[in-house]
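Posting for a labmate who doesn't have an account.
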Amino acid sequence: MAKIIMFYGSSCSHCHHMIHIVDKLKEEGFKIEKLEVWENAENAKKMRDFKEIIIPACGDGLGVPAFVNPEKRKAICGESSYEELKKWIEK
């Protein structure tokens, strides 16, 4: 199973909703690393390293929450349901 990276902002309401979903998926055994990018410059740099796959997923920039599968070089952006995120991870 691939490791997924979640990039999020500390005061982003959409991100806070997704953190609860991510925590549930982690409890089920999914490997998801959460990296805060609004307050942490090192994590923001890591996010920019994936800009070529995040920007198309977000539409017009580096938005949060953004989920990246580094192994498959794919990303999704924005708030989604538990079922949608789980399906995307399992693809």
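Reply:
Got it, the structure tokens are right above this. Helices lie at 13-27, 41-48, 51-58, 82-90.
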